[in-house]
Structures are given as structure tokens and as C-alpha cells.
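Fold this sequence, please.
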Amino acid sequence: MGDDKLADGLLSNEIAADKLDSTTLRQSIRKAIAKNPLDTCVVLCGTALKNKGVQSLLDAVVHYLPAPNEKEPVIAHEPEHYNKTHLRHPKKNEKLCMYIFKVLHDKEKGPLAYSRVYSGVLKSRAQLLNVNKDHMEKVLQLFRVRASSYVNVSEVTCGDIVALSGLKHSTTGDTLVDSRDTERVKLQEIKIPPPVFVSALEYESQKDKPALFQAFKTLMAEDPSINVSENPETGQILVRGLGELHLEIFRDRLEREYNLRVKLGKMKVAYRESILEEKEHSIRFQQVINGKPYIACLDLKIKPLTYEELEEELSGTINRLLHLNQGEKGTEHKDTKAAAHTPGAEPKKPTTGQTIAREHFIQNHPFVLEMDITEDDRFKLFYREFKKREELKRTGKKPEAEEEEQTPKEEEDPTMEKLKTKVSHYKHLKNPVEEIEVEEYEDEHGQDTLLDLASAPFELLQAIERAIALALGRGSLLGYPMFRVKVTICGGKYSLARSKPMIFEMAANKLMKELIDSASPILLEPMMEVEVITPTDNVKDIVQDIVSNRRGRIDELNSYSTKFGGVSEVPRSIITSTVPLSETLGYSTFLRSISKGEASYTMVFKDYEPVSQSKQKEILANPYDY
């Protein structure tokens, strides 16, 4: 595992131990670490409390770890084409590529983006492109960080870690490249777990609110795993994070750095809500507002989804965004191109970056909304273009030229093929579906005709989708977001004179509440994957506690032995289990006491699972305790 040549020389007395110098030893340790980086560890002594050993640690980094130019090139991919990868070598003459791993706000210098330069050279006052945000950024100053002091430099190169000032849109996990670079590539993003704890935050005075929300904006830019929202109905501020300590540090920073006196309420688990049954309901919603009659007829269907079903529902969108399984066109690696065009070749497995991007996309899309009101292909084409333009208006971005989709497709109607190229150039978009009268009715306000929803104005259809998405953001049990459900707009009727987007929003909101209530709503709780490393003697007690007291289940149990001083072997076990987050509070204290301090554990978010019926009744009976 180490330097075999040096070891053989010492054992055969060809090299005298008293003649061995520190340089030779360091080179030998450096070789061992480079050869087996996962199995070799340098142990140093020190104490942060007494500020001892810091210099030795810094020297060890220089002596034993590989220099940036000794590392392998980093793999970057194009944002919209995960199969199109590019290598960035740690060289000065390479294209600039850098990664923001931390954002901090300095009182004097403002926001500073701590970044590592993977390739190329960066100079102050340079114009950069944030690939993740698709925003131009200008670097005002470059700083080398020396503890609490900053040294201004004019240039940094590959391998350097630097703080950038002047960036306005960049956050943790973003990739920066030269604005003149035609290859827009980004590095693998940090996988940020969803916040699983929630707490209400209280502040002293209403005058503190503007400063408080400005502090929220700053702290969330520094830590993307923190989420702050305000309940529109109650005005209550809810803070979500990864644990009790995480939220307590957040509160402490508000007081210490921003002089804002705040309190955190009782820590609660961030549940989700879902349904057990598939239901379809209709509504005929009539309302008189300011003496004017309005009407909206809507038919909706809701059904629960498993993770696999949700992934399948979203697979078309994911594959289109990530360009998976599409022949690998444009990929730089020759073997990939060859495989893509070989008859009978298996499709290439997703890379780690693609897998993370897929999981991230599914995590951020907990429900599916489908419109099934017409089979007219023109409708889908026009409506998609309409929503795209509305999104561009909202964000203020300029439309970009789209690449032609590379997905294998069936022979298409030549008329539709021509229409695809024309629709983006139309100044005004109108629903192409022909109006069909489906009902004539008369009431105290006069006669009217209802038309099939398929021909409704796009603004009205978008209002329905907006209302459904809003309703899914707040479940019927405890107001938690709905999770893994699919809502289908099956049909409806509208009036040219009496139907407006507002009335359909009201109808959709009312119908969604009825649908969710009738579909057997359930609570979902966050489940954690807990890995315990313990002496084998304690396995029985730990397993019994997980299964009997913490509503968990054992997934895997492995044993191994460790040696101390090469003399005695200590049998140890690794217990992998799935445990509800609510049952892990205080677990470290229990583990230390039962194992006399020898056991340790790690915990990561796994998934959401249904709460048992008895536990759900208990939670609903005392919602403020949970």
C-alpha cells in the first residue's frame, strides 16, 4: 500500500533508520497517499481550543497532498445536454472554469463568493458568465483569504482558492466561465437535501420586518439548505432547515450579526401530504360579483403516484432537458459516439451528474399536472409556446434559439412540421381549437351558451393550472404540501360572456379541496437512513431500540474487526436502518450511554413514507405538538 522500495530497504538494512531524512519520509508518504487515497490517512495532533497544530496541518497539506497540476482533469457538461461533456485540465492555457463553493457577506466588502479555479486564468475586472443562472457577472476585486484578512490580488490561476467581490446573482454551487467562451459548461452541482425541520420564527417589532427579510435573503444566499417562507393567511414566518442545531445557528446569526431579537418556536418535523385513492369530480361554479354573473364548469381527476410512477411521468421532460438516450450527438468521447451508432448497443447509463440532476428535478417536482381536454396536436404546440412567452415576461429574459430535438420520432404530418417552425414567430397566439357549443342554458340573468373548455383562451387555462398548483401547495390535513400526486384536467365548459380567469381560479380551488378530501388524504413523514457503527456486544440492544421504540426497520447488518496497535482485534458491526426523522431526536445521547461512548452514527434523508393510521390519528388529535 505504501512505498515498497523504502520498506524493503529498511527491512534488509540497506537503508539505515538513523540515516533516514524527513524529505525521504515525506516523499514516501506522498506516494502512498497518491497510490491509495481512500485507504491512506495522515494523522496529526492539535487542538482548536489552544490554537495548536494549525501550522502543522497546513504544512501537511503541502507536503503530502497532490498539487492542482497533478490532479486529473475535471469533467464538465453542457447545462441542457448532460451527455455532452468537456474536459477542463488544470492548466493556465486552458479555458477558464471555476466553481463557487461558499458565499459569505462581509460588512465592509459585501457579498464574497469563495471559489476554486479549476482551469485557466482569472483577472480582476473580468466579465464572467454564471452558467447556472444564465447571468453575466463582473468581478470587481480578487482576494486571497488569510483568516479574517483579505489580500487583494490582480490575477489567480488554476488550483487557487479565491474570494470574488462584485457578483450579484451567484450562489453556492454555481459554475463561472469566461463570458467570451462559446462552450457553456458547468461542473457537478452540490446535492442539497430537502429541509426536514420547520419552526415558527417570532420577532419583537413590526419595524424590524424589512431588516429581517433582508437578513433572510442574505443568509439563504449563503446557505441554500435554509428555507424561509411567510404564511399568506396567518402572516407567520416559517423557517425550514436540516436539524435543530442548524436552525438554532440560523437564529443565533440573526441576533449576533444583524442585531435582530428573534425567537424560534417548537421544532417540528416537515411532513408532506398525499392521497390513497383515485377520484374524479366535476363542479358547476356560479357566482355574482358586483351584480355581474360568472360561470365556470370544470372536471378534474386526482390520483396518487409512487416514486417510480412519478419518475415515469416526468421522464419525458427530464430526458428532453438532460438529452438522455438520444444517440449521444455532440459528445466528445469517441467510444460513446461509436456505441450510439452500433446496432443493438445498449443505451449508455446515466453519469453521476445526470443521476443527481434527475433526482434533483424529481425532488423539485412533487406533483404532475396534465391537461387532457383535446387530442389536437396544434393545441399542445400553441399552448406550450404561450406558457414559454409568459415565463419569459415574468423573468425578463430574452428568448433563445432552440436546438432541434434529437429524440427519435415517428413520421410527422408535414403540416405540423411546418407549423412548429412558424409558431415561435407568431406575434399573437390564439387557441387553434374550433369553438364547440355544448350547452345552452337560461337563468335569472338571461340566456347563455357554454363552449367546450378545449377552445378556451390560454389565459383562462393557465389560471386553472395556477389554482391547482396553489391548492397542491397546501394539503387538507395540516396544510403541508401535497406529494407525489397527479392532477388531470379532464374537461369543462366556459362562456364567452361570463367566464373569466378569476372565476375559474375560484372554481378550481374549491374543486381541488373537495377532491383531496374525498381521496383519503394521508400524512407522509421524512425517513432517514441511519448507519450505526458499534461494538458487536451492543448490536442486540441497538436493533431492539430501533425496531421497538423508534418505529424503524433494519435494512442491513454487517460485521468487521479493527486492530489497535496490531495486537487485539475488536469486533464491530455496521447497522443500516430506516428510521422516521421524528424518532431520531436525542438519539446521539442514547447511543453514547448504551455503548459507553464507543458507538457513532450518521444520518441522511432517504424518502417520505406514509405515517401509520394510529400515528396519524395521534398527530391530527394534537397538531400543535407536532
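Residues 324-347, 401-411 have pLDDT under 50 and may be disordered. The radius of gyration is 30 Å.
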